Amino acid sequence: MLKEKYVCVSCQTHFNTIPQRWRCQCGSPLNLAWEKPKFSKEHIRHDLSGMWRYANALPFHPNDSVWEEITMGEGHTPLVPLSKEDPHTFVKVDYMMPTLSFKDRGAAVLIAKAKEWGVKKVVADSSGNAGTSIAAYAKRARIDCDIFLGAGTSPKKVAQIKAHGAHIRMVNGTREDVAKAAQMAVQQEDTFYASHVFNPYFFEGTKTYAYEIWEQINKVPDTLIIPVGNGTLLLGVYQGFCELMAQGLTPTLPKIIAVQAENCAPLAQAFHQQRIEIETVQNRGTIAEGIAIAAPARSKQILQAIKETNGYIVTANEQEIIEAHTALAAKGFYVEPTTAANYVAYMKHQKTEQELIVLPLCGSGLKTERS
Ligand SMILES: *Cc1c(COP(=O)(O)O)cnc(C)c1O
Ligand SMILES: [Zn+2]
């Protein structure tokens, strides 16, 4: 047995991993603790596609194959030099995914677990891409799905979610209001909350981003640039590199440089004021819609992870994001504006001569209207 447990990030209370449990009674999110089996290069499953080559490092029993019915080959995305002029900077093309964003890493694991548990219906809230991923994998797993969205969600993301047969529930209000509406529905309708923010199985999927980099360049990069709204990529990647270090496979952690949109930057603000907790900010509106989170539920963990790697947080303003979008397209990469913010962070970073940097291209440009 894997002996999985949920552990509260604040008060450390333990819970059994049952479908109904999505947060601690103190209100805080939960982490997943389990006895991790030995993992090394020899445990990579070269016979499996995508991120499932690391199946031996994921929380599934060796005889459990529910995920095999659900995977669409997500992960194991290309890691390529940004350009000839920047030979030490790599982009990880994480929009090369079944639903065109990195969220498929987390959704594949989370929905496989829900299916294993016999869940019949899931509820999630999203600014777009997580909802798209959850909808796609839920449909594939023959699980009913309701996605709560804000009224301003990109029409193409809404269309994508609809195409997967999910029931869309539009909420007028802030991103936080959308989350609250979903949580209320979970409680009232006694359904499964397939939250990419709260459910720690999602992070078991996003951690494969770290495993892939480790395998692809066979060392730890000096620096990772990571966009951060709710921190599902950031915390997954941090967890992944911590695991690789605990397994004795890597000697250090990469420095994490997080990027937020200047118009919605609660984490950047807390970081620069040296606070360990955020104050909720008001989203002043940004084309980087995928990172516009005014009150991220895992903010303490995110700030801690960045500090632990000697990293920092930088912000990108609207003009910079627009210019970065154009600059990336000129290099061949057509991304959504949220992803252009990552390039802004890269341009602002004072890199050293040989610094090995990886930045992710998280979402495809086809997901939004901007051209
Ligand atoms: C979800 C998403 C992000 C941010 O991820 P968080 O988990 O909110 O930190 C960044 N870029 C894209 C394209 C996304 O879909
Ligand atoms: Zn607690």
- Mean of the pLDDT scores? 96
Query: What is the string of helix and strand elements?
Result: EEEHEEHEHEHEHEHHEHEHHEHHE
Which hetero ligands occur in this complex?
A: pyridoxal-5'-phosphate, zinc ion
DSSP summary, beta strand count:
13
- The helix-and-strand class reads alpha/beta
Question: Using only CA atoms, what is the Rg?
Answer: 19 Å
How would you summarize this macromolecular structure in one to three sentences?
The protein has helices at 66-70, 103-116, 129-140, 155-163, 175-189, 201-206, 208-217, 232-246, 266-272, 299-308, 318-330, 337-348; strands spanning 5-8, 14-16, 30-33, 79-83, 86-92, 121-126, 144-150, 167-171, 192-193, 223-227, 255-261, 312-316, 357-360.
3D architecture notes:
The chain is α/β, with parallel strands linked by helices. Helix content is 35%, strand content 17%. It contains 12 helices and 13 strands. The chain has helices at 66-70, 103-116, 129-140, 155-163, 175-189, 201-206, 208-217, 232-246, 266-272, 299-308, 318-330, 337-348, and strands spanning 5-8, 14-16, 30-33, 79-83, 86-92, 121-126, 144-150, 167-171, 192-193, 223-227, 255-261, 312-316, 357-360. The chain has a 6-stranded mixed beta sheet with strand order 4-5-13-10-11-12, sandwiched between helices. Strands 8-7-6-9 form a 4-stranded parallel beta sheet, sandwiched between helices. A 3-stranded antiparallel beta sheet has the order 2-1-3, with no helix packed on it. A hairpin with a 2-residue loop joins strand 4 (79-83) and strand 5. Helix 11 packs across helix 12 (337-348). The longest helix has 15 residues, at 175-189. The model has no long low-confidence stretch (mean pLDDT 96). It binds pyridoxal-5'-phosphate (PLP) and zinc ion. Pyridoxal-5'-phosphate is lined by residues 101, 103, 129-130, 227-234, 290-291, 293, 336, 338-339, 362-363. Zinc ion binds at residues 8, 10-11, 13, 24, 26, 28.
